[in-house]
Amino acid sequence: MNRGTSLGDLVTRCPAAAAVLDAYGLDYCCGGFRTLADACAVGGVDPSVVEDALAALRDEPVIAEWAALRPGALADHVQRVHHEYLADELPRLRALLVKVYGVHADRHPELDDVVDVFDDLHDHLVPHLAKEDAVLFPMIRDLDAAEAAHESLPALRCGSIVNPIGAMLVEHEEAGAQLARLSAVTKGYAVPDDACASYRALYDGLLALDHDLRLHVHKESNVLFPAVLRLEAELAGAPETA
After folding, report:
1. Contact 139, 154 (CB under 8 A)
2. Is the pLDDT of residue 239 over 60?
3. Residues 222 and 121 reside in one and the same domain
4. 3-state secondary structure of 6
5. What is the pLDDT of residue 22?
6. Are residues 229 and 112 in the same domain?
7. Is residue 11 assigned to a domain?
8. Among 22, 126, 127, 224, which one is least packed by beta carbons within 10 Å?
9. Residues in CB range of 116: below 8 A, 6 or more apart
10. In this structure, are 229 and 114 located in the same domain?
């Protein structure tokens, strides 16, 4: 590992690096293309401190198991691990937030912002996941199956997979911005001193959602989508589309 390694590659090579980067506010999902040096410069973080923290992880796995999956299998993994998680957690957290707001909003007016930002994130993610499940992931599986069978590029409903991937990348950026706002309005998911058990459960759940969604976006934006774009280009016998 060196300072010229991208944040995305760091997390792919060592999944435990995600927690280190999160701790220093270094965005490895939407900002996974940045090198460690550049990300530290933008975030005002001493890179040597981050390097020391990452060095302590040297006994962790060299590469994440999911990173070795073929594109179709990786799409299945994302759907099973992350989409199903969100299908369960988003309604649970929304119900918990309504409960906490009803009891604590008079003493914690910041909950108005928490509700607004969470609802924006919720309403953004639900159709995003539906589009991936119904459109993009089936296309990825079609491309993967064609390559495995040594077939030519299959006809795709939107002409090229570049188009839906481009749309999903834009939506990933939006989700990343919403996560940043959610972290800001909760002061890093810091539980107030007078919080009840439900309040604590809510903030613990929001923190877990934050971590899971960042890893989810990383797997797609930095690993799955580049692999699929390369695969389509290879099947078409044309130069890779950036």
Report:
1. no
2. no
3. yes
4. strand
5. 87
6. yes
7. yes
8. 127
9. none
10. yes
Same-domain check for residues 122 and 228: yes
Q: Which amino acid appears at position 80 of this protein?
A: R
Beta-bridge partners for 6? 35
Distance CA 101, CA 114 (A): 9
DSSP letter assigned to residue 122: H
Do 210 and 140 lie in one domain? The reply is yes
pLDDT digits (tens, 9 = 90+) for 12-61: 888 888 889 988 989 898 888 899 999 999 989 999 999 999 888 876 65
Kindly report the average pLDDT of the chain as a whole number.
90
CA distance 224 to 66: 10
Taking the C-alpha atoms of residue 52 and residue 38, their distance in angstroms, rounded to an integer, is 17
pLDDT digit string, tens, across residues 203-217: 999 999 999 999 999
Residue 84: how many CA atoms within 13 Å on its side-chain side? Answer: 7
Rounded to 5 degrees, what are φ and ψ at 240?
-60, 140
Domain extent for 36: 7-55
User: Residue 99: pLDDT above 80?
Assistant: yes
Cα 150 from Cα 138, distance rounded (Å): 18
CA quadruple 23, 28, 34, 35: dihedral sign = positive
Letter for the amino acid at 73? A
**Mean pLDDT of all residues in 124-143:** 95
Single-letter code of the amino acid located at 25:
G
pLDDT for the residue numbered 238? 47
Distance CA 5, CA 38 (A): 10
pLDDT (0 to 100) of residue 16: 84
Structure tokens at 134: 């119904």
* One domain for residues 23 and 128: no
Radius of gyration, alpha carbons of the chain: 20
